[in-house]
Amino acid sequence: MAFDINVLTVLVMAALGGICAYLANQNIAVFNDGTRPMYGPYLNGEIDRKTLFATSFALSFGLVIGFGLPTSIAGRIIIVHTIMLACDIIGALFKEDTKGMILSTAIGAAFGVLLMFGMQTVINLFALMPIDFLGSLSTVGGLIVILFCVFPALAVAYQTNALKGIIVLALTMLVKHVTFHFGKFTIKDVNIALNSDGTALLFGIVAMVFVAARTSKRTEGSAAAAFAVFEKNIDRIKKNLLILAISGGIVALATTLLLIAEGPASLTLTAEGRYGEAAIVALGRCLGFIPLVMTTAIISGVYSPAGTKAVHVPAILFINMGIMGMVGSFFVGALIMAIEVLLLGFIAKGLDRFPGMKELGDNTRTAMSKILDISLLVGGMMAANAIAPTIGYIWVVGLHFLNQNSKKPISSMAIGPIGAISMGIIVNILYVIKLFPK
Questions:
Q1: At the top level of its lineage, which domain of life is listed (predicted)?
Q2: Considering the entire predicted model, what is its pTM?
């Protein structure tokens, strides 16, 4: 590994794992951009903790095993997804009461330390499974980030009519298409690649508020009420400014100590000692993720423990600068995170100028719930079919309709993830009894 194992690195990894699990448990911040929108329905009481955990597990566990650990081992530095996605799961596992907070924080800290010592061991253990289905689980959440930009168009349709919804949908698709094909450019040797999903989502939200402003009577004080559904979420994030700043500082410090890297490209460059190039790559990725992270934060009321990933950029440049570099990395990372959180309020004030209808919040939550339902169901079908092409689709669709007819149905959002995970278990059982080919 590129990092040294000593008292300092053990403490930093424990702090990183502990704070990430704590933030997820207390519904303050999660790293997975697909999981973050799920916290909105949870905080509104639309889904329970078990559903939240099942979804978080399905969306993140496959990425930890199939992407995070192998990439970390190959690059000799832990890619940030490995620890933060796992801590998303740990935090969601326990209730947000005092006992759950202590357990999740302690387990997250222990996981961070064990991860540093045992990455190869974990890979070897999962390799013992007769049929490896964990990589396929990442498919479950693959559609959420892609399809989530549809919810503003659906909210517009609920609020006005289908025609205006179709117009917003068409424009959202156009923005996504143009950004995907032409959103890569260079400014003063800095490569910038805009995230097409985040840009499309940002456009859709602005269009939704704009349409709401034009379809309601402008009255004194209506602007503040119109955007209350998002403004409340932003205020919730701002109340946790201090702990989020500390999280940003710890993430930056771990980067400076070569414990973590923000992405595969910067990981490789950092491992090779090409810190300037690694910082440039990290900056380009940061600029591309800003719309996605900030918009999902605004609509959910939950931020990311690494923010927009901007904290990694100066942290890379502080590598090999000794004690002063470590101290500087922590405080600069904390400052960047604080600025990001405060910028969310600036965005809210800008959008707050558009007065909307009082039912904007209800329509928005309904639209988000619909999109999450279909995204997770179809994602679960795709994952189950990848695991078992002969029976995967049948299993998830069957569970979906049987759940609807159950006396005590579970949340429809959980069917896709549960179906995919249970399908993986089933095929391993079938393999053991010689009824499923490897």
A1: Bacteria
A2: 0.75
Residues 90 and 56: beta-carbon distance below 8 Å: no
State pLDDT tens for residues 253-291.
Answer: 999 999 999 988 788 789 888 898 888 878 877 876 777
Q: pLDDT (tens digit, 9 = 90+) per residue, 64-116?
A: 876 787 778 767 789 899 999 999 999 999 999 999 999 999 999 999 999 98
Distance, CA of 13 to chain centre = 20
Q: Please state the length of the chain.
A: 438
SS3 sequence of the chain: CCCCCCHHHHHHHHHHHHHHHHHHHCCCECCCCCCHHHHHHHHCCCCCHHHHHHHHHHHHHHHHHHHHHHHHHHHCCEEHHHHHHHHHHHHHHCCCCHHHHHHHHHHHHHHHHHHHHHHHHHHHHHHCCCCCCHHHHHHCCHHHHHHHHHHHHHHHHHHCCHHHHHHHHHHHHHHHHHHHHHCEEEECCEEEECCHHHHHHHHHHHHHHHHHHHCCCCCCCHHHHHCHHHHHHHHHHHHCHHHHHHHHHHHHHHHHCCCEECCHHHHHHHHCCCHHHHHHHHHHHHHHHHHHHHHHHHHHCCECCCCCCCCHHHHHHCCCCHHHHHHHHHHHHHHHHHHHHHHHHHHHHHHCCCCCCCCHHHHHHHHHHHHHHHHHHHHHHHHHHHHCCCCHHHHHHHHHHHHHCCCCCCCHHHHHHHHHHHHHHHHHHHHHCCCCCC
